[in-house]
Structure formats: C-alpha cells, structure tokens
Amino acid sequence: MRTSRMGLAVLMGTVLIALAACSSAPSASTFTTSTTLASPALTIPSAVRVTCSGGGACLLHVPDRLRGRPLQLPAVARGASCPASTGTTVTHPGMGGVALGAGVVTVITSQAGDLAHGIVDLSRSNVVGWYGIKTDWAISPKYSGWVIVRAEQLNGHGPVAALGEATIGPVVVPPGPTSNTFAGWREQPSGTYVKGPGCYGFQVDGSSFTEAIVVDAVLPAP
C-alpha cells in the first residue's frame, strides 16, 4: 500500500467549485490503493458552496461514498516508462483539442507535445518557479453528477500545484451545469502546475466510476 504524498494535486485552488444550481489505466501498470487521506490534496471536503439558481449561496454535501473513495493510480518506479494515456483529437460544443482518457470525463489540452501518446511539453507559467499544463476537464452529457479530481507525481515526490497561489486541494465539480456548459457538455477550465518533468496521474471519481488519466510531462527540446 502506497502512502500519500504532500506534493500532490491541485487545480484552481483548495477546492475548485463549478457553478451549479441548487435545484438541480494501462494493463502494464501496477495499481495500488491508498486509504490514507490525511493530505489536504487527497481529502475531499464534506460540502461545497455553490451559486443557487436564484442567486446567493447554497451548501451541497458531497456523498460519503465519494469522500471515502481510495486513491488508485499506477505505481511507476524511477526510470521506468510512464504509462501515459492515449490522446484523441476532439471537437465538443464550446471546446476542442486533444482529449486524454477514454471515460465520461476527459482532460482536454492544447499544449505542445506528442499528445497522441500522452506526452506533454511543459511551458513557462505565470507563477514564478512553476511550469504549467493546460487542463480543461470535459464531462460528457451522459453524466450529470459529481466529479472529483485528485492527482500526484507517480515517479517521484514533486509538488503539483494550483493556478495562482498553489493551494493544495482536489477539484470538485458538483452536479448540474458549470459556468461553461454547452449542449450538455460540462467544461471545467483548469491549470496544472508542476516543478519539473515527470509522470503525473489524475484520478477522476464520479458517482459510479473511477478513471485514471496519466500524462508524461517533459521539457521541450531547445
């Protein structure tokens, strides 16, 4: 069993909350399970605040079955090849690019690199000392429930940080439309910030599924 690491995910703040109405892994990898959720990056909040349909704030409670979902990402030894996810060019209403992952939730990026093989060129970011990866989460109209994203470096202990102040925490998208919803497709814009190249994994949890998306982040050739 792999212990949790402090240098973990964050995309867009401690908890990135999409606007919602109150009414409304590769087989060659070894998967391990962690039930130690003490790290802020792995701890899913009990509730999130969202904007109600009539204005003001509402409190939505995250289901216990999601809060207790263990982290299951590929274990990658130092020096081993990164089991990066396959990329496919997509055009969804309101968004497009190369989508990594094959489930109802994918991550779309327009980053340079060999995206068809999950290899992403790191770029300079607006946060001093960090490289950036553009990560827009696309949620299929087939699914309208909760989405929670946690991530970590799989072949090391490097930090993965949020856009802006690099606060540790998971991405949480409540049920219902986000502020960027087009023809049923929910989009959650985000950015992933890292200190250097490495193999990085995202675990995407929904009400009835768990998906793993892996990217091999490299420094571009000079």
Structural class: mainly beta
* Strand-residue proportion: 35-45%
Shape: globular
Order of helices and strands: EEEEHEEEEEEEEEEEEEEEE
Write down the domain tally: 1
Quick take:
The chain is an all-beta fold.
Describe the structure.
The chain has 222 residues and is mainly beta. The chain has one domain (16-77, 84-218). The protein has one helix at residues 64-67, and strands at residues 16-17, 30-34, 47-51, 57-61, 71-75, 87-92, 95-100, 105-109, 119-121, 123-124, 131-134, 136-139, 147-153, 160-161, 171-173, 180-182, 185-188, 191-194, 198-205, 210-218. The strands form five sheets. It has a six-stranded mixed sheet, with no helix packed on it. A six-stranded antiparallel sheet has the order 6-7-8-12-17-16, with no helix packed on it. Strands 10-11-18-14 form a four-stranded antiparallel sheet, with no helix packed on it.
How do the helices and strands line up, and which of them pair or pack?
Layout: E1 16-17, E2 30-34, E3 47-51, E4 57-61, H1 64-67, E5 71-75, E6 87-92, E7 95-100, E8 105-109, E9 119-121, E10 123-124, E11 131-134, E12 136-139, E13 147-153, E14 160-161, E15 171-173, E16 180-182, E17 185-188, E18 191-194, E19 198-205, E20 210-218
